[in-house]
Amino acid sequence: MRVISRRVRRMWTGTFSIVARCPVAESVGVAVATAIPGAGAICPFGSPHGAISTQSFNNYYFGVDGLRYLGEGLPAPAVGEALLASDEDRELRQLLLVDNTGRSWAFTGNRCVGECGHMIGEGYAVAGNMLVSREVLKAMARCFEDTAGAELTLAERLLQVLEAGQAAGGDKRGKQSAALKVYSSQSLIPLCDLRVDEHATPVAELRRVYEVAKRELLPFMAAMPTRTALAGNMSESLRELLSMSPEERVPR
Fold first, then answer.
1. pLDDT tens-digit profile of 115-149?
2. Judgement on whether residues 25 and 61 belong to the same structural domain of the protein
3. Is the Cβ–Cβ distance between 54 and 62 less than 8 Å?
4. Helical (H) or strand (E) element with 83
5. Range of the domain at 236
6. Is there a contact between 157 and 147 (Cβ–Cβ < 8 Å)?
7. Is 229 in the same domain as 162?
8. What are 223-243's pLDDT values in tens digits?
């Protein structure tokens, strides 16, 4: 493994987030919310090999390089330590990641803006900075643990975690954007990849978009062609649904 030090693009992103793995579905995902626009473009990263959120004084290359290292088979803790070693400004950063075996890791630099911190549990990590209080992190961790064993998709669980974090106060500056990414360990095609780039209530809006996507987008993504099944697996009912206008698809 070769780690290259770079002059990184920097953006301060007060954020609360979660990375996690579902052992039942063999999926990994990341969800973030913050008070800057378009956080989904710069904070969350995912692939079949793992999920990452890079935040605080954001080092974008943590996401780019981290996914590459995870793809090479490195465990999450080794990836995290390698990324930090490449960055002389690491104490400004906040970073959390999980690999596709469920090993999780997180780091909060001592120059991150408070309230800040992280919590690591079995198969997940939560983190945040510029928070109203540490109760945000506790609420997020409790929500993820309480939904273990429930018949919920990982995307649903991650969204509930964001909702719990927001209900506990979230980012002390306010609300502006949110994002959700989930990948199966078996495919480069995401199971879910949704963003709200600018909204007065982004987590609530992400919930609304997710409910629409559950009916109209996620089944299509699951049926898309793969390298081993180029014909895909689209049912007639799904074809019929997608042939309708958006207004016609709304359940009566």
1. 999 999 999 999 999 998 999 999 999 999 999 98
2. yes
3. yes
4. helix 76-85
5. 223-252
6. yes
7. no
8. 778 777 777 777 787 777 777
